């Protein structure tokens, strides 16, 4: 009976604990050769406002090389929406007569459905002659996105995460 109580208590505590799931790895592709690799960001590293300095928060593996580095995402707060002018003109013609109509509206521009944030990533390999990748990132509010990188030789890489 004690074992059952202990197991039940452990299950209850586990169900109340916050879920810490690993971020699934994304893809990185060498645009010249098509060689694929993985990119893995630490949990929370793609949220806006995380400091640009500190411990590495991303690992890229491609072409037998492991790059480690830091990603930083800018805050994506929306600017005040400008005014928008809409004008509509229409008409019909038929055997029963013709009609003409028009309308105009001045008001705030529609708000976008989601906010995209810009960021950057700088990563390097370890060793006596390190290789580097510099990347630009575009990230949504769910920390999913895409990016483009260049290495020290100018080779282009693209990524999805």
Q: Which keywords apply here?
A:
161 residues, mainly beta, two-stranded antiparallel ribbon, 10 strands, 9% helix, 48% strand, Lipoprotein, signal
General description of the model:
This protein has a domain at 23-76 and 113-160. It has one helix at residues 2-16, and strands at 26-30, 36-41, 58-62, 65-73, 83-94, 97-108, 117-124, 132-139, 145-151, 156-160. It contains 1 helix and 10 strands. The model is unreliable at 16-20 (pLDDT under 50). It is mainly beta. The strands form 2 sheets. Strands 1-2-3-4-7-8-9-10 form an 8-stranded antiparallel β-barrel. It has a two-stranded antiparallel sheet with strand order 5-6.
Brief rundown of the structure:
The chain is mainly beta and 161 residues long.
Describe the secondary structure blueprint for this structure.
Blueprint: H1 2-16, E1 26-30, E2 36-41, E3 58-62, E4 65-73, E5 83-94, E6 97-108, E7 117-124, E8 132-139, E9 145-151, E10 156-160
Low-confidence stretches: 16-20
- Order of SSEs: HEEEEEEEEEE
Summed over residues and divided by their number, the pLDDT gives a mean of 82
Shape: elongated
* Individual helix count: 1
Biggest sheet statistics: 8 strands, antiparallel, barrel
The proportion of strand residues reads over 45%
